[in-house]
Design goal:
eight-stranded mixed sheet; alpha/beta; Nuclear Transport Factor 2, Chain: A; sucrose-phosphate phosphatase activity; six-stranded mixed sheet; Hypothetical Protein Ta0175, Chain: A, domain 2; 3 domains; 31% helix; Sucrose_phosphatase_pln/cyn; 26% strand; 425 residues; Rossmann fold; hydrolase
Length: 425
């Protein structure tokens, strides 16, 4: 990672399904709480790593279904694939590590002899991973039998059972834990070892994450039996690993506070918009707060107050402009006035707004250029745009806050709003 000149303040390495993403939370509230916290307080100087058993195909599918952030690093297919950035550039060095003592053909040949094993879909079969379904009461028997078969064939593999049904056969060097250890060693060699690392998981294939030295760990409250059993047998006395009392992403936020790794109050947990603006003089927080206010305004979750609109208008530069994704140019003050008509138009509806990859850059002594992705999720689907905001910082001793000078938005390909007239900021 070359985004930082020095070490990241915090690196979070999190499983996705039932850890970062709560599939029993139709409103995605815990995930959205984490999103707001990360973008407001951590994105600019920390690293977000998703470590999932999903293949690239299923990972991209999940990103379309849930309001997920874009990670800096993605570890997929149970630690057999590491990629970087938006373009998901593969780590060739990791591929070389996994090629040692691995023969996929032998794995397929030996596993075909067991009727108890059912191959998962083609998308889940990867160069260094072969995945099956197996009944829970047959899992241990299968793992033992397969280990003996592979040993006789001179094959060095790793067998992982998780989720009460998934059995993955990986190259011996693979796994979520080994992938994390590889990344930490890589950062160390570059002189950029993160100041703190927090591993987050819920199932058996996450256990390795908690075995890496000097890494904090959180098992979310809904962690599965196989992970809790591993913890009881291997790490019960380890103060760096906790079993959260909160589910999924809420448990991750809880762990940040428990280990004193940094701020752990999500902007979504703060109800007073005006007080929050006065207390947080930070461009990332400014962006998160504004779009969270916009969501709450349209859901009628804040008071229909002229004071709120007046405070927004007060921080708009007199000649500030907003360039709509359709190309229409409007004064920022007119956009604030237009908010009056939109109050409560999404009340009682599934409507959420979140921002992703909020990256402020100071381009002058008192000027910030902030680029990010802005998303809206409603009953009609989701739409998004690339957003650029120019902020001018005021004298903090006089008035904590920023002046909004310029807002420019461009639709993502295939992610534009069907009704351009309803798009606000």
């Amino acid at each position: 990672m070359d985004r930082f000149k020095s070490s990241a303040r915090l690196m979070i390495v999190s499983d996705l399904d039932h850890t970062m993403v709560d599939h029993h939370d139709p409103e995605n509230l815990s995930l959205l709480r984490f999103d707001a916290l990360w973008e407001a307080k951590y994105r600019h100087d920390s690293l977000l790593v998703f470590s999932t058993g999903r293949s690239p195909t299923l990972y991209k599918q999940l990103r379309k279904e849930k309001p997920m952030l874009t990670p800096d690093i993605t570890i997929m297919s149970v630690g057999t694939e590491i990629t970087y950035g938006n373009s998901m550039v593969p780590d060739d060095g990791w591929v070389d590590v996994l090629n040692q003592k691995w023969d996929r053909n032998i794995v397929m040949e030996e596993t075909s002899k067991f009727s108890e094993l059912t191959l998962q879909s083609e998308t889940e079969q990867r160069p260094h991973k072969v995945s099956f379904y197996v009944q829970k009461d047959k899992a241990q028997e299968m793992m033992k039998a397969l280990s003996e078969r592979f040993e006789k064939r001179g094959l060095d593999v790793k067998i992982i059972y998780s989720g009460g049904m998934d059995l993955d056969i990986l190259a011996q060097g693979a796994g979520k834990g080994q992938a994390l250890a590889y990344l930490l060693e890589k950062f160390k060699a570059e002189g950029k070892l993160p100041n703190n690392t927090l591993a987050c998981g819920d199932s058996g294939n996450d256990a390795e994450l908690f075995s890496i030295p000097d890494v904090y760990g959180v098992m979310v409250s809904n962690a599965q039996e196989e992970l809790l059993q591993w913890h009881a047998e291997n790490a019960k006395g380890n103060p760096k690993i906790i079993h959260a009392t909160e589910r999924c992403a809420a448990g991750i936020i809880q762990a940040i506070g428990h280990f004193n790794l940094g701020p752990n109050t999500s902007p979504r947990d703060v109800t007073d918009f005006l007080d929050s603006k006065l207390e947080n003089f930070d461009p990332g927080h400014e962006i998160v707060e504004f779009y969270l206010f916009l969501e709450r305004w349209r859901r009628a979750e804040v008071e229909d107050s002229e004071l709120c609109l007046a405070s927004l208008k007060a921080v708009c530069h007199p000649s500030g402009v907003f360039i709509h994704p359709s190309g229409v140019v409007q004064p920022l003050s007119d956009c604030i006035n237009a908010l009056r008509r939109s109050y409560g138009d999404k009340q009682g509806k599934q409507f959420r707004v979140w921002v992703d990859q909020v990256l402020p850059e100071q381009i002058g002594s008192d000027t910030w250029l902030v680029k990010f992705n802005k998303w809206e999720l409603s009953g009609e689907g989701r739409c998004g745009c690339l957003t650029t905001v120019l902020l001018n910082s005021k004298d903090a001793s006089v008035s904590k806050g920023f002046t909004w000078v310029h807002v420019h938005q461009t639709w993502f390909d295939g992610a534009g709003s069907k009704d351009h007239t309803t798009w606000l900021f």
